[in-house]
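Incident log, entry 3
Record: GNAT family N-acetyltransferase (291 residues)
Problem: checksum mismatch between cached and fresh output.
Input:
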Amino acid sequence: MNQYRFKRSFSADSNLSNKLFDLVEVVFPGLGELTECGRKLGASWEDASTPFIRFHDDIAVTHVGVLEIPMQIMGQAVTVGGVHGVCTRSEFRRRGYYREVIEEVLQYCDKRYQTLVLTTPNPDFYTPFGFRKLEEYVFKIRWDSQSSRDGFRILNFDDAKDLKLLHRLLETRTPVSNIVGVVKEKAVFCFNEGSRPLYYAEDLDLIACMEIEDTKLHLFDIVATQICSLKEIIDRIPQTIEEVTIYFSPELLDAGDIRAFPHLFDETVLMVRGKFAAEGEKFMLPRSARC
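Fresh output:
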């Protein structure tokens, strides 16, 4: 048995990459499709993640990955370490492999980041290693709009122009919130959002990560060089909107009477280790940045 120690990228080692994704696909079926989607969008897991892998007879049995996420937290630029892809083959669990790997990960990260984040449905796996749970919130507002003009189109990533547009806005985006927002990050965004419809408003030069359910708008993220008002977004949706749920701090949306509610996003808990200046504030880490 041997431990494969960290390497900034494994994109040049297809053998290693294949072994890792064999493991990931066994533990998280379907995840391979999402990683392939990010690859096609020019923001691959392999280029962004530092892998920590435990092998048994040349088979990858445990993995913990580390990504860098450039964020703005309470108005300050912070590069956060994102812990992701944590998994162990079922037949190799309860042998101490996860503890061995996560302890090496933390030694690596403590030299580089003041803050680590992760999202998980199993917080008890991480509390022994200094991670703590943070409460998150969704933000709701009643709305009264009639059918408006159709100001959005869905991006087509088979079109090189739309792909270039996505990269330009991700590289130059302003944080969606001054409380907790993300800047200049591609890999996590493309993994989380690249298989979903992304809506582009040309006159606003804005990408909206959103879903519409009957007359309810769910707004998950905005990628733009300048954040516009919520009204400007809704004015470009060609149907009646009666309620809006926002999955990030909405203070930049100029939207009036928005109410905050504690919320467990997709049954996952946000956990942090180290400093986190927004602790105690009402916020949510956007879906596009969750790892």
